[in-house]
C-alpha cells in the first residue's frame, strides 16, 4: 500500500534518533565548540542535505532537536541528582561534587556551554535551552532539597529559591574556571570552593 502524501515512514523516529546520536557523539568529540552549518552537518553525518532537511527542516530545527535529544540522554544523570545521599549536609556537598564532576570530567559543561552560547538573546533557542537542559537540572536539585525539607533538615522555603541559591554560583564558578579560562586568569581551588559554598548554603537553609 503506497504511503500517503505527507506521512512519515514507520521508522522515521528511529532514523532521526540515529542521526541525532551520531551528531551528539561528533559534537562531544569536538567539545561542542561550535555548531556547523546545515551543509557541513550533512557531510559530518554522511547524508544529503535534502535528507537532513526531511528530518529537521533547517539548522535551527536541528539544534532544537539535538537539545531535546540531549535531555532524554541525561535522564539517568538527573535521577542521580535527585537522589539524596546521607544526611542533609552531606547530601548537599555530594550533590555539588557530582554536578562538578559532570562539568569537569563529562560532557555536561560543554553541553551547557553550547546551550548558553546559542541560546543567549535567541527568542527560540533560548527558551529551548532553558526548557530542556537548565530547568530539568534545576528541578532535579529542587527534588533533592524537597526530600531534606520533608526530613526536617532544610528550612521551609520555596525549593526553587534554595536550588537557585545552590546552583547559580556553582554554574558561574565552573564556567569561569573551565570554559572562560579563569583557571589562568584567577585560579580557584574548586574543592575548597565546594566545601565553603556547601557550608554557606547550610548556614542559610539548614536546620541544625
UniProtKB/TrEMBL annotation:
Gene3D superfamilies, A to Z: Tetracycline Repressor, domain 2
GO molecular function: DNA binding
All copies of domain HTH tetR-type, residue ranges: 13-74
InterPro entries: Homeodomain-like_sf (IPR009057), HTH_TetR (IPR001647)
Signal peptide: none
UniProt DNA-binding residue ranges: 37-56
SUPFAM superfamilies in the cross-refs: Homeodomain-like
Entry keyword set: DNA-binding
Official protein name in the record: HTH tetR-type domain-containing protein
Biological source species: Leptospira ellinghausenii
Amino acid at each position: 500500500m503506497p504511503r500517503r502524501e505527507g506521512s512519515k515512514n514507520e521508522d522515521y523516529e528511529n532514523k532521526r534518533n540515529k542521526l541525532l546520536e551520531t551528531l551528539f557523539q561528533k559534537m562531544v568529540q569536538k567539545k561542542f565548540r561550535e555548531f556547523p552549518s546545515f551543509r557541513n552537518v550533512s557531510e559530518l553525518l554522511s547524508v544529503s542535505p535534502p535528507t537532513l532537511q526531511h528530518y529537521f527542516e533547517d539548522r535551527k530545527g536541528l539544534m532544537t532537536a539535538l537539545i531535546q535529544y540531549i535531555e532524554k540522554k541525561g535522564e539517568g544523570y538527573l535521577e542521580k541528582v535527585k537522589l539524596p545521599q546521607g544526611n542533609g549536609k552531606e547530601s548537599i556537598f555530594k550533590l555539588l561534587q557530582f554536578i562538578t564532576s559532570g562539568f569537569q570530567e563529562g560532557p555536561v559543561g560543554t553541553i551547557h556551554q553550547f546551550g548558553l552560547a546559542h541560546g543567549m538573546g535567541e527568542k527560540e533557542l533560548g527558551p529551548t535551552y532553558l526548557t530542556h537542559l537548565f530547568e530539568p537540572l534545576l528541578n532535579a536539585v529542587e527534588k533533592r532539597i524537597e526530600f531534606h525539607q520533608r526530613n526536617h533538615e532544610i528550612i521551609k522555603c520555596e525549593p526553587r529559591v534554595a536550588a537557585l541559591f545552590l546552583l547559580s554560583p556553582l554554574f558561574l564558578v565552573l564556567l569561569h574556571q573551565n570554559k572562560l579560562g579563569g583557571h589562568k586568569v584567577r585560579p580557584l581551588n574548586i574543592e575548597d570552593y565546594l566545601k565553603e559554598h556547601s557550608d554557606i548554603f547550610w548556614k542559610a537553609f539548614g536546620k541544625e
